[in-house]
C-alpha cells in the first residue's frame, strides 16, 4: 500500500482545520494541532527523501562495482540502472580489447627485439674480422651495431614493464643477498672496466631476504650500470648491504654529479632523464624497471646523495612475507 503523498495529507489537514475552527471558534487548539502535524509530515517527507537518495547512491555504487540490480521494474531507478549496467559492460569490453591489443603489441615488440639480436651479433662478428687497414668503416659498423643492440635491449625491458610480465613471473623466496650482489656486479663489470671503475662491496655476513633472484639481479644491475655511467673515470662504485630488522637495505653509491633533490622522485618515471644525463647513453627505462621489480615484491626504492658528493640509490627488500601485508594493514588503519 502506497503512502499518502505529503501534499495531499497537508490538504486534508487544512480541511480538518477549517472544520474544527467552525466548532471551536476563538480556540488556538486546532491551529496548534495543525501546525504540529504539518511540521511532522514535512520532516517525515524530508527524511524519507534523504533515505531514498542514500539508498539510490548505495545501489548505484554497487552497480559500478559489479553488483546486480533489478532491471525488470518499470521506474526511473531501473531505467538508470539499465543505463549504468550497459555502460559498465561496454567499458569492460573496451578495456579488455585495449588490454589484449596492448599485450599483443608489447609481446610483438619484445619478439622483434629478441629476433634482431642474432643478425646484430653476426654483423658485429663480421666487423671484428675486418682488417683495421680498411678504413673507419669497421669502427662505424661496430658503433652502430652496439647502438642498435642497446636500443633493442631497452625495448625488451620496456615491454616487460608494459605487458605485466613482471608481476606474473616473480617468485620471491629466501635467497642470499651476497649472491645477488655478486651477480649484479659481475654483469656490470665489463662496462666498468672500460672506464677504469672499480667496485667495492661492504656486506653483512649471512644476509638473506625474500626476492626473485633473476628479476632482482636485473633490478640491482640497473643501479650498478647507472652508477658506472655517471661515475667519473678511474673512480669507485660502492655496494653496501645492511640488515634493518624487517628488511635488507642495499645501497649503490657513486662519486658522480649526483641527483638534484627536485628530480629524486621524477627519475623513477618512464623515459625521464635528469639534467645531468647529458649525452650519456640511455632512454630512461632502467630505473623504472628497477622500481617495478622491487615494489612488486613488497619492497621500495630510494634516491639520495653521499656526504662526499655523488648519488646513492637504495632498494629495500623484505625479510618476511608478512612485511608487505603489515604495511597494507597499517595503511588501511590510517585511512
Which CATH architecture of the largest domain is right? 2-Layer Sandwich
Count of domains: 3
The ordered string of helix (H) and strand (E) elements is HHHHHEHEEHEEHEEH
Number of β-strand runs: 7
Give the overall shape.
elongated
Main sheet attributes: strand count, strand direction, barrel closure: 5 strands, mixed
Strand order in the sheet with the most strands: 2-4-5-7-6
CATH topology of the largest domain: Heat Shock Protein 90
Write a structural description.
The chain is an alpha+beta fold. The chain has three domains: 63 residues; 73 residues, Helix Hairpins; 162 residues, Histidine kinase-like ATPase, C-terminal domain (Heat Shock Protein 90, 2-Layer Sandwich). Helix content is 59%, strand content 13%. The protein contains nine helices and seven strands. Strands 2-4-5-7-6 form a five-stranded mixed sheet, with helices on one face. A hairpin with a 5-residue loop joins strand 6 and strand 7. Helix 4 runs parallel beside helix 8. The radius of gyration is 34 Å and the shape is elongated.
Distinctive features:
single chain, 335 residues, alpha+beta, Helix Hairpins, Heat Shock Protein 90, 3 domains, two-stranded antiparallel ribbon, 9 helices, 7 strands, elongated, disordered C terminus
Amino acid at each position: 500500500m502506497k503512502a499518502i503523498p505529503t501534499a495531499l495529507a497537508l490538504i486534508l489537514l487544512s480541511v480538518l482545520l477549517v472544520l474544527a475552527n467552525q466548532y471551536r471558534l476563538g480556540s488556538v487548539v486546532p491551529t496548534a494541532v495543525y501546525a504540529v502535524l504539518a511540521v511532522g509530515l514535512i520532516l517525515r517527507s524530508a527524511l524519507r527523501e534523504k533515505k531514498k537518495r542514500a539508498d539510490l547512491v548505495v545501489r548505484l555504487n554497487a552497480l559500478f562495482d559489479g553488483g546486480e540490480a533489478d532491471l525488470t521494474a518499470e521506474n526511473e531507478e531501473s531505467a538508470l540502472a539499465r543505463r549504468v549496467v550497459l555502460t559498465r559492460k561496454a567499458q569492460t569490453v573496451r578495456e579488455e580489447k585495449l588490454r589484449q591489443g596492448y599485450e599483443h603489441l608489447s609481446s610483438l615488440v619484445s619478439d622483434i627485439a629478441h629476433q634482431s639480436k642474432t643478425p646484430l651479433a653476426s654483423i658485429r662478428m663480421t666487423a671484428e674480422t675486418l682488417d683495421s687497414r680498411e678504413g673507419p668503416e669497421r669502427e662505424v659498423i661496430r658503433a652502430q651495431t652496439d647502438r642498435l643492440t642497446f636500443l633493442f635491449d631497452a625495448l625488451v625491458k620496456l615491454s616487460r614493464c608494459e605487458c605485466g610480465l613482471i608481476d606474473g613471473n616473480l617468485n620471491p623466496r629466501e635467497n642470499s643477498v651476497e649472491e645477488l650482489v655478486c651477480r649484479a656486479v659481475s654483469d656490470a663489470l665489463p662496462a666498468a672496466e672500460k672506464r677504469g671503475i672499480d667496485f667495492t662491496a661492504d656486506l653483512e655476513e649471512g644476509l638473506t631476504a625474500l626476492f626473485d633472484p633473476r628479476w632482482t639481479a636485473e633490478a640491482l644491475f640497473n643501479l650498478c650500470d647507472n652508477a658506472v655511467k655517471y661515475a667519473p673515470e678511474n673512480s669507485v662504485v660502492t655496494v653496501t648491504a645492511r640488515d634493518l630488522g624487517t628488511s635488507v637495505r642495499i645501497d649503490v653509491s657513486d662519486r658522480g654529479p649526483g641527483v638534484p633533490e627536485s628530480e629524486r622522485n621524477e627519475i623513477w618515471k618512464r623515459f625521464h632523464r635528469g639534467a645531468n644525463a647529458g649525452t650519456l647513453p640511455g632512454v630512461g627505462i632502467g630505473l623504472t624497471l628497477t622500481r617495478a621489480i622491487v615494489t612488486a615484491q613488497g619492497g621500495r626504492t630510494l634516491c639520495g646523495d653521499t656526504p662526499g658528493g655523488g648519488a646513492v640509490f637504495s632498494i629495500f627488500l623484505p625479510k618476511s612475507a608478512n612485511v608487505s601485508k603489515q604495511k597494507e594493514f597499517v595503511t588501511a588503519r590510517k585511512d
